[in-house]
Amino acid sequence: MSAVLKAPLVVEFPFTRSLGPVQSAFLTGLRERVILGVKTRDGRTLVPPVEYDPVTAEEIRDLVHVGLTGTVTTWAWNHRPRRGQPLDTPFAWVLVRLDGADTALLHALDAPGPDAVHTGMRVRVRWAGERTGAITDIACFEPYDGEVSTVTVHAGEIDDPVTGIVAAARLDYTYSPGRAQTAYIHALSGRRTVGERCPSCRKVYVPPRGACPTCGVATSEQVEVGPRGTVTTFCIVNIKAKNLDIEVPYVYAHIALDGADLALHGRIGGIPYDEVRMGLRVEPVWTEGSPYPDHYRPTGEPDADYDTYKELL
Amino acid sequence: MTSAPRDREIAVVAFAQTDHRRTSEELSEVEMLMPVLHEVLDRTGLKTADIDFTCSGSSDYLAGRAFSFTLALDGVGAWPPISESHVEMDGAWALYEAWTKLLTGDADTALVYAYGKSSPGSVRDVLTRQLDPYYMAPLWPDSVALAALQAQALIDAGDTDEPVLAAVASRNREAATANAHAQLRGPVPQGDYLVQPLRTGDCPPIGDGAAAVILAAGDRARDLCARPARIRGIDHRIEAHGLGVRDLTDSPSTRLAAERAGVFERPVDTAELHAPFTAQEIVLRKALRLGDGVVVNPSGGALAANPIMAAGLIRIGEAAARIHHGRSDRALAHATSGPCLQQNLVAVLEGELR
Amino acid sequence: MSKEPVAVVGIGQTRHVAARRDVSLAGLVREAALRALQDAGLSWADIDAVVIGKAPDFFEGVMMPELYLADALGAVGKPMLRVHTAGSVGGSTALVAANLVAARVHGTVLTLAFEKQSESNAMWGLSLPVPFQQPLLAGAGGFFAPHIRAYMRRSGAPDTIGALVAYKDRRNALKNPYAHLHEHDITLDKVMASPMLWDPIRYSETCPSSDGACAMILTDRAGAARAPRPPAWMLGGAMRSEPTLFAGKDFVSPQAGQDCAADVYRQAGITDPRREIDGAEIYVPFSWYEPMWLENLGFAGEGEGWKLTEAGVTELDGDLPVNMSGGVLSTNPIGASGMIRFAEAALQVRGQAGEHQVDGARRVLGHAYGGGSQFFSMWLVGDRPPDS
Fold first, then answer.
1. In terms of domains, do A78 and A94 share one?
2. B84 contact residues in C (CB cutoff 8 A)
3. pLDDT tens-digit profile of B145-198?
4. Is C37 domain-assigned?
5. Which domain, by its residues, includes C63?
6. Cis peptide before C200 (omega within 30 of 0)
7. Structure pTM?
8. pLDDT for A75-113, tens place per residue?
9. Which of B33, B316, C56, C134 is the most exposed place for a label (fewest CB within 10 A)?
10. Of A9, A13, A51, Cβ closest to residue C24
11. Distance (Å) of CA A55 to CA A23, A40, A50, A221
């Protein structure tokens, strides 16, 4: 068995998050260098402010200003910052109870080292240079031994409130397709389509997925199928999908390769799209350097009789 | 409202798990899972067609693809069609769903499975995606960092210190020497700080694995297992999401779930705790009022193997297996989910007196 | 001891739209939950547990979002379960919640399903790249279109049937204030003239992409007795699954769907669904799935479903109205769509469906499916308790 097949898989999207009134006020406040909390009915002030009281589930909307200074309630020294974290040099994660608040906010503390950090220490906000209305408008906290800092920036109506954030998120994975699919992919590189037979029901799966899904047992006996097959059903795709480099219209078809017990999916070419039909006999067309057939084209054989493929749609 | 009489006795009758490893990259998820499904069925002599209800737990975010659980279903052999459900939670909650299904009387047997492959992604980063998407997730605070904040809070409260945490780590890994499935077995150096105050030894191994359990009701349980592990109670509770509104040194949701599950009615002799980080075992022992006489994590716990989404179900399976083998009469199993023990499940399992 | 009967005493939905820019994720689910509580005359303290469902987490980019939503749904200190069974999830979620009541684990349960598709893009979420696999398609339409063609071939249905379904559902939606699409100037000609996207599926025969949530309060007999409005009673409920792709799979009429319906009818004592059921809310994301599911659910013989559609039987004033609410074709917050079907069925038997009420509806089916036509969940609700 050759080395395990692997490829990078990046899952990345800029999520567009609309905000409710409380997050909107808080994040707008950060942009304007003020920090808002929200009061619960029993008089606690929650920072960061949330829309619903975590204890009573009541909707809470009574926003109040709190200090830009506060006290560390717990901390953890981050020796090696990771992608996306607030600082790229070692820092402390902290929960900070801002002056006037009853709950603590999670953020980063810029300090020279773990010996300079302790629970109970006083800190103040360090604002980001460019602020857009996001939690990252607080660049981090920094040690501070001065007076309680009260809010000085305008507390009145703020123009142009922040109503949404764009939260870009990227995760990097290494994809490996597993034993059965790896064997299938290796065979394709030699322009052969090799499925696997279920030892129990004897059906041939193409592509193989490692298990016969009806019997719940591993498939292992390799069976070469095709190269020819029958179009069992299809649709004509008329809309161009982003990040898909196929000109429209094109035919997306289910193709039962000869010897396979279910259809695989492929594109039909070499024939006008509106002449493709169920029962059309096709064969793969390979292109240099491509790991799979580019498309399937008619073989010129007579169409297959419906009864021969009606179980393979 | 949870005290209504229930006349069905439900038991764990079989448990199986993979050998948990840093990577299973040569296998797809279904290829990793399927042998465990076969093994758990073999233990009872049941076939897929004999199972009345199937429920699983897994996460798309671990796999990096949507609907990842649909591929795992291939390993079940769901033909003819089966009565089946899935939770995007640890398999312990899948077991809870199956338990309610059996209680209704609509099913007598259930297959519960869970699997997780942490190897394809960076699990510390992946788990940041389960945090408040407005205030926390944009800061990418990783799972070790959050656990470290909790550990420091415990140290500040005088509940623990680093030597005690190191002892928790070494006791769990020592216990794992008897567990052939564990990923870390025997002494592991405490190592350097990963996020202070947590050292590498305080953190769980990252790895891939799967587990499966079979539940059966009433007489069926006795037919399938010489000494079924009867579920005397099971309950789960969630806390507020924000770390700054919770007391991180305590776990009121664990305590409440334990009360509802009947933990405090009589002492347990064994406890399998889902505490991926050493400091969390301190929190759980306190919440569950576990005395020195209780054998905690004879399997080595999540510090020895932590396949995410399966690690909670494994706690129930390990506790049940102790009862099956006559090494426990009354065992507690615990599972957790979310940052810093946000959500917790507690089950009490009992064997018939010998 | 037999199962506890399960009653629906509260139903709440958001007004479904393409993008709810005025609420957070928490605000969205909260809106549906509060409406359900108000309908039931209950407060947060009356809820014993919360069961929530949604489709893939990638759609909003929040892994296991129930952890964050616990506060908004009053779940703190309570049990909270999160279900995910692909497109059928809204229905499955309701059934998991119903089991908690039926098993007498809890007395009153809040169940809720949602999707906020505007946070990302479903096309992206459904088409994450898979290395080594040839990218051929994006989105669900191309996946389902070949199966529709197979149905047309097998049944010999005229190719106008899909348009009739779309025209009906969009008109029904005009009577439903919560529906996403309100196409006041809809005509059959406009549906027929809309562009072919994935031939044989036209643009007007596809579902929209919606933000929305749906919630229900499920309770036991005692809870139902206290309810301020008439409850709907669950007469039967079931889930069935089969593999995604397999040799011999019938995508047109999957066995799992047939088996699921048969189980529900058996529980409810239904022997002739066409006569004994007064209406159905069926998960129809592409119009042709109405005749296909009519056959799969036993309302018509094989190859005969389209004849019911063509004859107007499934119209709001027909004798088997289907998708009185406007259906998935008019509203599709994916994870919530199944629960909306279940909730709309319950609204009908409670007599609370407003302008889209079917007079005298006493037994109505709610249906959901998902994945590669492989996951099914259904319930039948009635205006009277089981065995009465």
1. yes
2. 239-241, 375
3. 999 999 999 999 999 999 999 999 999 999 999 999 999 999 999 999 999 999
4. yes
5. 7-121+209-226
6. yes
7. 0.97
8. 999 999 999 999 999 999 999 999 999 999 999 999 999
9. C134
10. A51
11. 19, 9, 12, 59
